[in-house]
Amino acid sequence: MHKLGRGHRDKVQQFMAITGTSEKVALQALKASDWHLEGAFDIFYSQPQVKSIPDSRHLEELYNRYKDPYVDMILADGISLLCNDLQVDPGDIVMLVVSWHMKAATMCEFSKQEFIGGLQSLGVDSLEKFRERMQFMRSELKDEQKFREIYNFAFGWAKEKGQKSLALDTAIGMWQLLFAEKQWPLVDHWCQFLQARHNKAIPRDTWSQLLEFARTVDSTLSNYDAEGAWPYLIDEFVEYLIENGIVQKSS
Q1: CA-CA distance, 181 to 238, in Å (whole number)?
Q2: Where is the DCUN1 domain (predicted)?
């Protein structure tokens, strides 16, 4: 490492500290990403074979710290303690990314398999490593494909058990959280429209198509195709925007 400049040396040391990996692996990942730390993390975490293997005893200890005293799961109190230990707010979107990594079936709970499996996939077996990994998980929201996966995961994660649709209040809360990250200018109008005109649960099709609409149709609707295969609710939203003078009808 003595042949490297100071800036590169610092990045190697930082990469090794966060990932717990060897200097050789750190150099490979950083060189492959043209010395961009976030890119190097992406490369490292997309190749499970190069991750440090978490200690199963430490994983058990972590699980037992947060496990409910009466049920073999981590429930709301345990997640609140976890957030406190990670120094993040329970409403922080990074906790949605954590749940995505754990493939959690339901909001505010982790089964033992979900919790331990998620930490193993992240290469985490201590709170210190978990805290260090938070920056990487935040960066995943900036990746278009990962954001889409997290967005679609959120529907099943946030809905009530046994329900096919997502309660409107929950859907609105999730959209405000997700689109604060993705910056869709019409999100507040969409939520107001739903409360004024819809007031029903949101089906999965509308949930998934809205991201496509937000991604592909500009906020002035200049490229909106009324003949396109949008769910009726999105077509009604467009009419609402025009009726209320929020956008001008394109000629």
Answers
A1: 23
A2: 54-242
pLDDT digits 0-9 by tens, 18-33? 777 778 878 888 888 8
pLDDT in tens, 63-115: 999 999 999 999 999 999 999 999 999 999 999 999 999 999 999 999 999 99
Residue 126 is encoded by which pair of tokens? 């201590």
Residue 32 sits in a domain of what CATH number?
A: 1.10.8
Quick: pLDDT tens for 140-159.
Answer: 898 899 999 999 999 999 99
Residue ending a domain, among 109, 141, 173, is: 141
- Rounded to a whole number, what is the largest CA-CA distance in the chain? 67
Task: Output the domain CATH number for residue 110.
Answer: 1.10.238.10
pTM > 0.85: yes or no:
no
* Residue 150 falls inside a structural domain: no
Assess whether 93 and 111 both reside in one domain.
yes
Residue 179 lies in a domain: yes
Task: Tell me the one-letter amino acid at 156.
Answer: G
Per the CB < 8 A criterion, the answer to whether 141 and 147 are in contact is yes
Which amino acid belongs to residue 169?
Answer: D
SS3 18: helix
Same domain? 134 vs 96: yes
Say if residue 15 is exposed, middle or buried (CB neighbours under 10 Å; 0-12, 13-18, 19+).
buried
177 SS3 class: helix
- Give residue 25's domain range: 6-46
Q: Does residue 112 lie within any of the structural domains?
A: yes
Q: Which residue has the tokens 């290469």?
A: 123
**Secondary structure class of 27 (helix, strand, coil):** helix
